C-alpha cells in the first residue's frame, strides 16, 4: 500500500455546495487518494456565549461557522459528487451529530482533529462505529497520545485501524518547526499506522515525512487563497496541490527497491563519463605493455579503467596506433 494523501478541504467550501463540488474536482485532479471536509455544527464545538478566544472575536467565529452549516441533503450531494468523480470522501466530525451523518454517508474513515485528541468521551463514541480512525496529534504530549491510544485500543481501534498523524498546530508551520523526528517516536511507541498533517507552505516536510515512514499525508487545499475563511490563506491552490502530490509520489518511487543499482538513464551517462583504455603511443605487435603505454580517458570502451591491472606486463597480439582503443582481442582470443 502506498502513501494515502488526504486532500483536506476542511471548511474551505464556505457553506457552498457548488464550491465543495469544485474542491472535489481539484482533489481528484491532484491525484490525492481522498478528499476530506470538516462538518462543524457550532453548538457542538463552541460554548454559546461571549468570551475571550485568542486573537479571534468569538462572535465573528460563531457567525462564520453558522454560515458554513449545510443540511444532511447537501452533504449527501457533496459526497455523491465526489464518488461520481472517482475520489473517496470523508470528514472530520466534532460532535455526535457529525458522527451520525458520516455513518449514513458511508465514509471510508473518521477523522478526529487535534483539538479532540484528549476528548476521551468523543473518542469512545467515534470508535463505536468501527471505522478506521485518523487522529491528529497537534498540541499533544506523548503522554496525551498514549492515553488516547489506550482508550481507543480498548474500543477495538488499534494497529492499522488507527492512524496517528504527527501535527504541529501552527498555521502555517515553518519547515524548521515541524519536528519530523516525532514520526519515528509515534511509529515505535504505538504500533499503529503513522502519518503527517502538513501545515507548511511547501512539500519538503511531507516528502521528508514519507522517508521517515509516514503512510498518510494530509494537506489543506483551496480553489483560491484570497477567499474569506479560516483556512484559505495557508492552503494550496490547485496547481500547487497537484505539484505537492506529484512530489510525494516521486519520493515514494525513489524509495522502492530496485533490483539493479544502475538504471537506464545512469547507464547512458556512464558510457560517456567513465574512462576506457587507449594507446598512449604507437604500440607494435608483441610488445609487453607498460603503464606508460596506456591512456585512461573518456569515453568508456570495451576495456574499462580497472582493466589496466589485467594487461600491464602482458604482450599485445596486434599493433595499436596512438589514441586508438585497447580491446580485449589484443590479449585474449575468443573461443
Features:
335 residues; 36% helix; eight-stranded parallel β-barrel; alpha/beta; TIM Barrel; elongated
In a nutshell, what does this entry contain?
The chain is α/β, with parallel strands linked by helices.
Describe this entry's structure for a reader.
It is a single chain. This protein is an alpha/beta fold. It has two domains: 252 residues, Aldolase class I (TIM Barrel, Alpha-Beta Barrel), CATH 3.20.20; 57 residues, Type Iii Antifreeze Protein Isoform Hplc 12. It contains twelve helices and twelve strands. It has an eight-stranded parallel barrel, surrounded by six helices. β5, α5 and β6 form a beta-alpha-beta unit. α1 packs parallel to α10. The protein starts with a strand and ends in a 24-residue tail after the last helix. The mean pLDDT is 97.
Amino acid at each position: 500500500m502506498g502513501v494515502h494523501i488526504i486532500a483536506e478541504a476542511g471548511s474551505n467550501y464556505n457553506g457552498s455546495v457548488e464550491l465543495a463540488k469544485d474542491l472535489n474536482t481539484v482533489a481528484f485532479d491532484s491525484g490525492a487518494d481522498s478528499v476530506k471536509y470538516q462538518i462543524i455544527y457550532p453548538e457542538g464545538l463552541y460554548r454559546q456565549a461571549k468570551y475571550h478566544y485568542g486573537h479571534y472575536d468569538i462572535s465573528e467565529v460563531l457567525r462564520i461557522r453558522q454560515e458554513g452549516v449545510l443540511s444532511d441533503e447537501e452533504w449527501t450531494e457533496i459526497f455523491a459528487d465526489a464518488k461520481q468523480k472517482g475520489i473517496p470522501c470523508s470528514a472530520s466530525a466534532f460532535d455526535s451529530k457529525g458522527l451520525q451523518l458520516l455513518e449514513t454517508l458511508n465514509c471510508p474513515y473518521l477523522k478526529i482533529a487535534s483539538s479532540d485528541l484528549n476528548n476521551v468521551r468523543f473518542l469512545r463514541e467515534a470508535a463505536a462505529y468501527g471505522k478506521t480512525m485518523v487522529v491528529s496529534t497537534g498540541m499533544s504530549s506523548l503522554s496525551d497520545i498514549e492515553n488516547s491510544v489506550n482508550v481507543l485500543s480498548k474500543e477495538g481501534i488499534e494497529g492499522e485501524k488507527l492512524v496517528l498523524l504527527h501535527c504541529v498546530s501552527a498555521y502555517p508551520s515553518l519547515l524548521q518547526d515541524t519536528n519530523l523526528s516525532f514520526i519515528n517516536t509515534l511509529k515505535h511507541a504505538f504500533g499503529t499506522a503513522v502519518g503527517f498533517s502538513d501545515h507548511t507552505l511547501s512539500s519538503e516536510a511531507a516528502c521528508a515525512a514519507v522517508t521517515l515512514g509516514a503512510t498518510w499525508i494530509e494537506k489543506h487545499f483551496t480553489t483560491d487563497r484570497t477567499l474569506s475563511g479560516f483556512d484559505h490563506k495557508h492552503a494550496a491552490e490547485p496547481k500547487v496541490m497537484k505539484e505537492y502530490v506529484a512530489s510525494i509520489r516521486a519520493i515514494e518511487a525513489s524509495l522502492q527497491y530496485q533490483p539493479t543499482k544502475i538504471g537506464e538513464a545512469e547507464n547512458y551517462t556512464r558510457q560517456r563519463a567513465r574512462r576506457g583504455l587507449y594507446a598512449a603511443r604507437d604500440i607494435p605487435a608483441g610488445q609487453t605493455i607498460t603503464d606508460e603505454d596506456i591512456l585512461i580517458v573518456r569515453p568508456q570502451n570495451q576495456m574499462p579503467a580497472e582493466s589496466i591491472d589485467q594487461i600491464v606486463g602482458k604482450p599485445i597480439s596486434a599493433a595499436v596506433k596512438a589514441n586508438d582503443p585497447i580491446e580485449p582481442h589484443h590479449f585474449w582470443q575468443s573461443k
